[in-house]
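#struct-pred
JK: can someone run the complex with benzoyl coenzyme A? inputs below
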Amino acid sequence: MESNYQDRIPNNVGLGANRTLQRALEHWQPEFLNWWHGLGPSDFNANSVYLRTAISVDTKGWATFDYVKMPDYRWGIFLAQEEKDRRVGFGDNFGQPVWRQVPGEHRSTLRRLIVTQGDTEPASVEQQRLLGHTAPSLYDLRNLFQVNVEEGRHLWAMVYLLHAYFGRDGREEAEELLERHSGDADKPRILSTFNEPISDWLSFYMFTYFTDRDGKFQLKSLAESSFDPLSRTCKFMLTEEAHHMFVGDTGIGRVIKRAIEVMKELANDDPIALRKAGVIDLPTIQKYLNFWFSSSLDLFGGDSSSNAASYFANGLKGRPDEIKYEDHVEAESSFTLELPDGKGGVREEKIPMRNAVNEVVREAYVRDCEKGLARWNRHLEEAGYPQRMTLPSTRFRRTVGSWANIATNPEGKPISQEEFNARQDEWLPTSHDRAYVHSVMKGVFERGKMAGWIAPPERGINTQPINFEYVKFH
Ligand code: BYC
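RT: done, C-alpha cells with the ligand placed:
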C-alpha cells in the first residue's frame, strides 16, 4: 500500500478509500489535539524542535528530520509491509494462514490487549509533561520531545486498530484512552508503572531504559500475533522504540560518567561530597535503578498466568523472536518456577510452559537489561573504581506475581517485613534522595551547554554537532 502523506491523517493504510473510517478518525483527531494541549508537554508547543517524522515505512521515509512545532507534528498511521502468505507462528493454530480480520471468539481479548498497549502511550507523555522545564541541555530537550511525539503516534497506531476492526466498542475504547490519566485517583492508567510520576531526568532516563524496554518486549510479542494488522502495526512501532531506549541508556551512562569525573576531581567518592559538588552519587543512581527495574518487571504480568497461556494457545500474543524457539506449540513442555515457600525460603514448582510465557519473556528482558549495565560498569572499570551498578533480583519489591508483597533484599533473599522496612532506605530512593535530585534539575537552554550533573553525549542527533540548535526559542 502506498504512503499518503498529503491526507489530513498521513497513512499507508488506504484511509482515503474508506470514508467511514476516515471520518471517524478525523473526528478523533481534534480530541487527540485537545488532549495534547492539556496533558502533553507543557509550554514548549510554540518552539521549533528538530524532530524526525515518519512519512513512510521504507528505509528512506521512516526518519525524516526537520524543525517542527510539536502540535504541527504529522501523527500518521503506518503499518509495516504485508508479508505474503504469512502463517500463524505458534500455539494451537500453528501453520495456518494469519487473520486479516478479528475472529469473533477472540474479539474481546484482542481488544483488551490493544487497549492495554494503547493506554501506556499517552500515559508516558502525561508522566513526562513537566520535564521540559528542567532539561539538562537542548539536546536532551529535543530527545524528550522526540519520545513524546512518537508515543503520541503509537497511540494513533492503536486507535487506528480499534476504529478499523472493533466497530462501536473500539471507538468507545479510543475515547477512553484520552479520558484515563496517569496518576488520576478516579481514572488511572491501566498498568501500575504508568501511574508513577516522572518529575526528574534521572527517572526519565531510567524509565526510557527500563520501561520502554518492556515496551520493546511487549511489542515484539504482539508483532508475532496471528491478527496480522496488529503484528504489522507493532513491527513498525519497534523501529521508533530503539531511539527511546538509546536515550535512557546513554542518559544513565552520562550521569555516571559525570559522577566519575567529579569523583576524580575531588579524589573522593563520598556521596555527601559529591552532592556538595552538584552531581548525583552512585548509590542514589543505584536506588533509582532498583526502583524502575522492579516496577518495570511487574509489567510482564504474573509468572504463572492462565491469560498468557490462552493468548499463546490461541495465537494472539507470542514470545519475542518466536522463530528462535524450537517448539512453537509447547503443548507438553513445562517450566520450573522458583516460588516463595511461605516459610521464608524458596521452593520449586513445575508449571506448563504456556502458563509461564510471561516469565520466559521477563527472563529475556532481564538479559537485555544487563547489556546497559555492562556498558555503564565499563566507565567505572576504565576509571579504576571498584563500584559496579547491579540489577536487583527479580523477586525484589514486586507487586505482581508470586513474589508480590514478599519482603526480600535486593539479592532476592526472603527477609522479614521488619527488616525490609528498616533497610529500604538503603535500597530505594528516599524522600531526601528525591529532593536532592530535584534540587539539581534546572533547565539549561543555551546551545552546547550541559547541566553540571551530566556529561555531554558522545555525538549529536542525525550527524548534527552537539551544540546544534536542537530547539529554537523565538
Ligand atoms: N499493573 O495474568 P496476569 C510500552 C493485570 S510498555 C496493573 O498476571 P497477563 C511503553 C492484567 O492486566 C508495554 N495490572 O497478566 C513503555 C490482568 O488483568 P485482567 C505495554 C496488571 O494478562 C514506555 C491481571 O493483572 N504493553 O509499550 O498475562 C512508554 C492478571 O494478569 C499489571 C503491554 O503491556 C500491572 N503491572 O499480562 C510508552 C501489552 N500486570 O485482564 C509505552 C499488552 C498485570 O485480568 N498487555 N496486570 O483484568 C498484556 O499483554 C498483558 O495485559 C500484560 C499482563 C502483559 C500487561
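RT: quick notes.
The longest helix spans residues 228-266.
Residues 93 and 315 are 7 Å apart (CA to CA).
JK: thanks, will look after standup
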